[in-house]
Amino acid sequence: MKIQKIHLYEQVSQELQKYIHDNELKEGDKLPSVERLTEMFGVGRSSLREALRFLEASEIIKIENGKGIFVRDVDTFRFSGKVKVEVEKKSLLAILDVRRALEGKAIELAAKRITPKQIKEIQSCLEEYRRLKENDESTSMIDLTYHRLIFKAAANPILESVLDSFSDLYNKFFYEPLGNKQLFDTTYPYHFTMFDAIAAHDVAGALSEFDKLTNALEDLIKTYEV
Q1: pLDDT tens-digit profile of 166-176?
Q2: Where does the HTH gntR-type domain start and stop, copy by copy (predicted)?
Q3: What is the pTM of this model?
Q4: Which end of the chain is more exposed for a tag (fewer CB within 10 A), N or C?
Q5: pLDDT, tens digit, for every residue of 140-165?
């Protein structure tokens, strides 16, 4: 299992939350100045300001120009949950950027190279996907299988090896993203329309359906709230 890199601003934001908690600060209480906080945490102003922007976006603090930094939300469960979700949302959106590039190329190649045997494999996969969906069962793993079959149909071992090296991050979309197994159920129909275009060797059509799928994912991630 790979250790996920933690950005400095995330560490600083965690320390700021701990400071609020340990000092039992309430809504409306004022935090130390930027200068004092940089001294306390031993970080530069840019890292601190990024952490402050992150916490303000998470509605934990509010920054009033000329007045200072104030606590906005001291509900421990809510704000720790918000921070966790905001960090994961940023991570998923960054991964999605890479998915668009890698998977988009795989879909383009698959639409050109897919074999009759591979078409049958993906059809069987989609039949199982439909069965699980109709029975209100988890579709995470069959969804992952579907996308991996498309990479296989691209018939490019280098592309597959890049996916394998990226798999820990890629799989985040299938293992309870944001703690919600069925979060991306809205993308379900695009799997069928995208496959129909791939099977028909319609490159433009397949890429168009993939764009719809990834745009739906992006909207879901951006608007998701605890």
Answers
A1: 888 898 888 87
A2: 6-74
A3: 0.65
A4: N
A5: 899 999 999 999 999 999 999 999 89
